[in-house]
Design brief:
mainly alpha, Helicase, Ruva Protein, domain 3, Rbsml_uS13_C, Ribosomal_uS13-like_H2TH, structural constituent of ribosome, RNA-binding, Ribosomal_uS13
Length: 122
Amino acid sequence: MARIAGVNLPTNKRVIIALTYIHGIGRTKAVEIANKLEIDHTRRVQDLSDAEVLKIRETIDADYTVEGDLRRNTAMNIKRLMDLACYRGLRHRKGLPVRGQRTHTNARTRKGKAKPIAGKKK
């Protein structure tokens, strides 16, 4: 069982795919890490030696912002926008879409379940 950045990587998956289980590492960064450490893309996590796992862990700690630090950083950025009371911050505060999507219809993910309006019927 390989544990990197507080995440247990699935043992039977390829290294590239397993690294994407870490928040902040996608396919591109996973390939970049594997190339940097000269790990074959077809290797599975269970086939990695302890030294290779340690190298991966050290590389991620040194070069990438992942998991808790990344989540904290994102939350602080959103909080900063809300404190500034800029347009994006107000949209975050109200729980509405931030990036210009329409809200007349759709936007249910951000707005939540539809609430019926009393007295709407004719």
